[in-house]
């Protein structure tokens, strides 16, 4: 029963996102534009771009993920369905996890698929390309899970975007440091197992705690 409800909510959010495809394109276009501006603004030299490529791609991915966070619960809050979800007999953390998974499939997965092409644009070495994909596969779900807590706390505010950034950005810094550091080390030929293990631990921690923290924050915002 719980799994069936999870699947229904996941399919609902994916269907609603598909009906508003223009909104889905905004974070992806932002991601592409930000990364593409660096060769124009800094230098077209391959050596210069190789040095900044990991940080540029990860900062752009982080900001693109943040750009789409506000839509995670906003439409449900405005039409009243969020209250119905919170008051339902089903586990609220499980329902929150379904919405976060839908957000990642809509935003995080496309970023992961686009990143290698932008890595080629910035002359990222082939040796670092798999590490870039691995860090995004581990890191982007963390961005969605942690961001959901901030969105849940600010969903009732009219202009909660700035407050959301202040709440969420400091929590994103460890992910940015270890993910960009892993890609840098891979480009130099050094092992990156330590950074990947750390990202895996952060993902496990986020999966364990974030749905419960988000559910509690939603109850506070809706009370």
UniProtKB/TrEMBL annotation:
NCBIfam families: ccmB. The chain crosses the membrane at residues 24-43, 55-73, 94-124, 130-155, 162-183, 195-218. GO terms for biological process: cytochrome c biosynthetic process; cytochrome complex assembly. It comes from the Bacteria. One of its GO terms (cellular component) is plasma membrane. Its main location: membrane. This is Heme exporter protein B. It comes from Candidatus Thiomargarita nelsonii. It is a multi-pass membrane protein. Required for the export of heme to the periplasm for the biogenesis of c-type cytochromes. It is found in: Cell inner membrane.
């Amino acid at each position: 029963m719980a799994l069936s409800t999870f699947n229904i909510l996941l399919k609902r959010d994916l269907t609603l996102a598909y009906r508003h495809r223009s909104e889905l394109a905004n974070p992806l276009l932002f991601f592409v534009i930000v990364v593409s501006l660096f060769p124009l603004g800094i230098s077209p030299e391959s050596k210069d771009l190789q040095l900044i490529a990991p940080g540029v791609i990860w900062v752009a991915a982080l900001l693109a993920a943040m750009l789409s966070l506000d839509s995670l619960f906003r439409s449900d809050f405005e039409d009243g369905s969020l209250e119905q979800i919170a008051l339902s007999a089903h586990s609220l953390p499980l329902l929150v996890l379904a919405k976060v998974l839908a957000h990642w499939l809509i935003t995080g997965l496309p970023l992961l698929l686009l990143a290698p092409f932008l890595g080629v644009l910035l002359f990222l070495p082939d040796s670092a390309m798999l590490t870039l994909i691995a860090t995004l596969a581990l890191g982007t779900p963390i961005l969605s899970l942690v961001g959901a807590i901030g969105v849940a706390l600010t969903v009732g505010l009219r202009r909660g975007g700035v407050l959301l950034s202040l709440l969420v950005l400091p929590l994103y810094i460890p992910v940015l440091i270890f993910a960009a550091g892993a890609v840098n080390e891979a480009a130099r030929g050094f092992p990156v197992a330590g950074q990947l293990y750390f990202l895996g631990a952060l993902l496990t921690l986020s999966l364990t705690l974030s749905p419960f923290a988000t559910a509690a924050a939603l109850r506070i915002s809706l009370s």
